[in-house]
Amino acid sequence: RAKERGGGVYEVFDDGMRERALRRLETENSLRRALLHDEFVLHYQPQVRMVTGAITGVEALVRWNHPERGLVSPAEFITSAEETGLITTLGAWVLEEACRQSAAWSAARPGHPPITVSVNLSARQIAHPDLVATVAATIERTGVDPATLCFEVTETAVTDDHDRAASVLHQLKALGLTLAIDDFGTGYSSLRALQRFPFDAVKIDRSFVRGIETSEQEAAIVAAIVSLSHALGLRTVAEGIEDVRQVQRLRGLGCDTAQGYFFARPAAPEALAELLGVTPG
Ligand code: C2E
Ligand code: MG
Ligand code: MG
Ligand code: MG
């Protein structure tokens, strides 16, 4: 059909491609510079036990502390980092930083139950042949207790080569850490993913939580996810809880853990230390 519209179409298409390639190169360069200048920071968002409100863990979420733009959200750079392959370097930095922070919090809270630190893993990281060795080395170097480390993986991050992905996830688990399936229910074969991969926890996507008070249908889906997860021996974490009615509803459905703005927004480690009762100094 493009042909019928004449030769000009091809030129426009070429310009668009050139522009995209240029923009991609620009983004790649600025991400590279940001890594070099140590401009990334981790914020942490608490995950709380639904029944008691006690903090059981935190999710590490990366931000780009840009010299001019301020804190830039991962929505604006994770895709580029994946496309350019820089996610491997960025992901290794995130892991190292999260493990150091976790070990520091554990050391600062003797006698307290440990806090699980969850780290997001992207498809590109899982596909990288060095991932398992990198994770093992990072655990060793930082002295973090691997039992307090959890990787969050979306279903789409493991759809490319199922057998390879399954093998990688099993090798990661053999290091003593746990795995959660992120944004559960948004993919095409979420149930198959639960069966195929060795997950320990299910993170119920925010889109289901959002409708839980207003839509019986959404509530039924969440109820089904919780009971299915429990039947398979998996913990459940509800994402994106913004008000108390959602908490009450999810508690009624037997959901184990909650994460969302209602409890706490992602925050710098100093703010978390206060929530965790870690005395400064
Ligand atoms: P995610 O892993 O599903 O993380 C949850 C996102 O939901 C976070 O957005 C969090 O700030 C946001 N959120 C939490 N509670 C609420 C709530 O009550 N309401 C609303 N509207 N949002 C809430 P954030 O930090 O912007 O991260 C977005 C995505 O970027 C993450 O989604 C994850 O896929 C990706 N990401 C973040 N950090 C990393 C990282 O270190 N590595 C990789 N590979 N991806 C990351
Ligand atoms: Mg996540
Ligand atoms: Mg999520
Ligand atoms: Mg998400």
TrEMBL record:
Chain ranges of the EAL domain: 24-280
Protein name: GGDEF domain-containing response regulator
Source organism per UniProt: Paraconexibacter algicola
Segment of the intact protein contained: 306 to 586 of 586
